[in-house]
Fold these 4 entries.
Entry 1:
Amino acid sequence: MNMIKVLMVDDEERFRETTAKILSRKGFETLLAGSGEEALDKLSFSPDVIILDVRMGGMDGHETLQKIKEQKPDIPIIMLTGHGDLSGAKKAYSSGAFDYLAKPCDIDLLAAKINDAFHHAAPKKLPEKMVGSVMIPLDDYTEIDADSTVLEAIAALQKSIRGLVATNRLMESGHRSVIARNADGSTAGILSPRDLLHAVLPEYLSAPKPSTADSLQYSAMFWDGQFTTLAAKLADRSVRSLLSGEFLTIESSANLMEAANALITTGKRRIIVQENGKDVGIVREQELFYEIARIISSR
């Protein structure tokens, strides 16, 4: 995907340079201007979003905002105001700024505002995302030898989750499954919650029933104690024995529609993403749902 091009306009050189470097590390292409006059010159570089400080020497932010809007009315502009300068913020907003933030601003919030501004102003400019851009990297999953026991897999998953909670990354990862590896490092499969549910069910439930038993129902008394007993018996089974057959793979460069079609037609809930023959991530139903939600919200 093409990077969002951000024009950073601020007469404080240190703030301007530092913020630009951080935004670059977050994947934005940054242009710099130290004054309103320089900002107008930089419009020829076609920035997607402008970050504009209100208080600058010479042409201040409000005047610069007005002149930019005269030349490029569709460019979204995020104004940076002094802390507590509510009147300046309101004036900027009423003059056509997309949004405003108080300095010093949280860089993650600024990055989010830039993305919001770009999507709001030019949703059609965004190329359609590929599978690789929405996948969860394999590094975010727990990995274990496929011949390990389920008990060992659960212990490894619990350890990973504790680490994610400590770093506030649990919500980002959606960490619930375990990647099972063969001895040569290749992927044997994915041990998911659904696999454990299938494994805990009594075998006779999946066995063919006589026609006279089609309407057979089991009472609550019949099930009493079975879940706990059968779940405990899973502890010593190998992870490999629980893996649900062949898993789907898809290239990171594939279109999201291809991924959606594969999930729906096969009934699978996740696909392993490959790049140059190497497993690099997983795309699930959730990732496609989030992308649908993003597209709808950006209209």
Entry 2:
Amino acid sequence: MSKTDEIDDSTAPLIEHLAELRNRLIHSVAAFIVGMVICFTVATPVFNFLTAPLCKVLAEGGQDCALIFISPQEGFFVAIKISFLGGFILAFPYIGFQMWRFVAPGLYKSEKGAFLPFLIASPFMFLLGASFAFYVVTPLAYDFFLGFQQFGSGGEAVVGEQVNQGLSVVFQGSAQEYLNLTIKFIVAFGLCFQLPVLLTLMGKAGLVSAEGLGSVRKYAVVAILVLAALVTPPDVITQIILFVVVYGLYEISIFLVRRVEAKREAKLRAEGYYDDEEMEAHPDEPVPAEAEDGKG
């Protein structure tokens, strides 16, 4: 076989993989567009649902729940943002399935069994974090923000001709600004709840260990405190809630990684690859690939 033939043979699989990737991307984009169109048709009910935390806080203060458009095109952009977020959420299971179909042929059976649970757990944890943000964090955040309103002498909001009864600085929010802040909370907490999935998957791959995660616990505490200060309003209660939740997820991650390591050790013992004396003498030595993946 000539050198040119060898090059052509090696190039063919790459072209096939790129063609397969292109097809999967086309299917994923199509699903995302379909999800966007569906969400665009119901953008108004979805937006009304997302205003529930704000309306609840305003109702408790005796105010009407009213948002305004400060520009003619703002309503359209609100619908587009809802379509983007909702379309991605609706299409994510199908996009994840396309990702799985692309990588699965190149995985061993043991690797498929290890990767698939994380692919299923990721959207579940994101929805759990988004729900926690919407039902717990946003009401507390808006209660804090709206606490800076100033009311007239009668105890209610004073507007128009009655403003001479007392200074009144009341909330008249932009629909787009409210949506931006609410989405920020939902996405931030949804991503934070991915922590156990990410660290457990890294532990499965041997990139992190339970002992290593435990040894950097004090640095994790500082990082979580910084995160809480960045993604939450300057409200101590909300920041404490986020810190407790994320730190709890970190400790859960350590527990899950420890379980992964225990299962790996039990498997190696059963297959005769694990030597207690050798592992004690060389604790940092990597596990044999054939023992880990069952490829030998």
Entry 3:
Amino acid sequence: MDLIDVQEIRVPATRADISVGPSEKILAGGTWLFSVLETGLTGLIDITRLGWAPVTRTDSALVIAATCTVAELSRLTPPELRTDPVRAGRGLDSPSDPLALFWQCANSFLASFKIWNVATVGGNIALALPAGPMISLAASLDAEAVIWMPGGGERRMPVAELVTGVMKTALVPGEVLREIAIPLTSLESRTGFRRIALNDLGRTGTLVIARRAPAGETVFTVTGGTSHPVQLRFAEPPTAALLRDRLSAIDCWYDDAHGSPDWRRAMSGRFAEQLRQELA
């Protein structure tokens, strides 16, 4: 751990105890925070002791706390929908039940399953790395982020809009991601999943999730290969040509050691067409 300037770790018991100073950060799982050098960071606010229920259900939404761990989230997938971790990560198995996405996205982490017991849903989303699989999951299901504002009150916005770039979000200083709410209507859809990396256990090169609602609305969500989530929304299943045109308009393909923009563009197009046919 290279947090050499940290002087204090505070553990709030209530929301009123949360106040984030200019040189402090919120600590959820910490699997990324504890792995990189952070100079000038003097304090951490550990929100994992606030006692938030990992998953709750309302009349309209499945609500996942920001402190819900990946292990807890993965248990939402019925055992019969769970596939072999390597196969699921590569997207070779694509059950159409949207609950399969919880398992498929959990298996898209570049991490040992042991990390699942510590890494949190909210931490992965707020970190805003292109390969963040919790971003992929939440965005593809039209999840809404519930954000606590400093001084009281909350605001809401789609997770697909919360992540604005590589390690950039729409959160302002002092705000805390409290939970994400997945509309129950999204869980009535059929889904398809595809992911690729440069090796079987590598970081995501691109990840495409398609979702078709009972009424026909079809949404393709591209992550991993783009600097922020990109959604292509159609009132009804698109033709191959229309889908190809919409994909060609994406202009935020990411470039790093885990894949070139041209490769990510090509594989995303291939996956999207496979999913279009699969859900048709």
Entry 4:
Amino acid sequence: MSGVEPACLVAAFYKFVAIDDTTALREDLRKFCAARPIKGTILVAHEGINATVSGVESDVRALIEILNADPRFSNLAVKFSVAGSHPFRRLKVKIKREIVTLGLEETRLSAPTAHAVEPEDWNALISDPDVLVVDTRNDYEVEVGTFEGACNPRTRAFREFPDFVARQLVDNRQKKIAMFCTGGIRCEKASAYLKSEGFEHVYQLSGGILRYLERVAPTDSMWRGECFVFDERVALEHGVRQGHHGLCQRCGHPVMLRDEERDATLCASCRDDSATPSVAT
């Protein structure tokens, strides 16, 4: 971080760990954040915690400190970025069935997951022609940006990933598969699922796209486009800085912004629909 205090520090973190007292943890976190101007979403489940929050730097770092003081979260990996103002409108602390929804009760993170590959080593892995590179994110996220040569499963939600595996990956159990997602959480669960299905050589980008954009210089990057995020910044570019996307005001689809369109954003599809005259019947 630079020596200049940002308007907002954004922290994204998750951990798969057994949590018995989900209600108590939710209340403790809600009270802590509500006592400070911390906004964002924290999901708590019996399988772990998943969150992205924003606030004054001292408040956000204090939240991370109290989590690190809990033995369950002592080695919590956190990805930081900055924003000019809160990218979230309110605070939500929820108990969920899963911290990332795959929808399969039998998929447990106690099973071995993928080999973690650091961002600095990722380019070499995905440049190997024998490696199948899979983007585990949703179709609209992939459209905003992805790695060169990556396969788009064309899912609308993460719970559709097992269907993609059944359709397109089932005959590749001996192949090296390199997966990535925004921050790592979807890959971690997807890799556990692949392992349970008999896939042997599974790799994932450690820290996800966000860590790659933080550590890898644009001149060395194999990333193309921007990284969609689920907050009002919409997308981030290299250096985990806010990118150049907004959301379509009609359908909510991410769209690249031109400066003159920032106050009246429509995606190409909705723009075409608006230009098509109605036919009287």
